[in-house]
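Next up, a chain.

===
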Amino acid sequence: MKHWLIAYIDKLLEQNEQIYEFRAEGRLNKAAIEKEVTDHIVQRLYEQGRSSVGIKTCFNRNLGLYYIEIS
């Protein structure tokens, strides 16, 4: 699941999207996934020279729904 999610995030970053929505299902460590995805986005943006951005995360861990916005 992580590989698919990271590939999805990379695709959205290439398209300069500002909003990322995804769902983490099953018995995964949802807090770890949230941190890993956020860290990945920050790293990719830094590599693109966009180091002064804000990231807003909203989530419902019970349902596994995540909403990440870059500003």
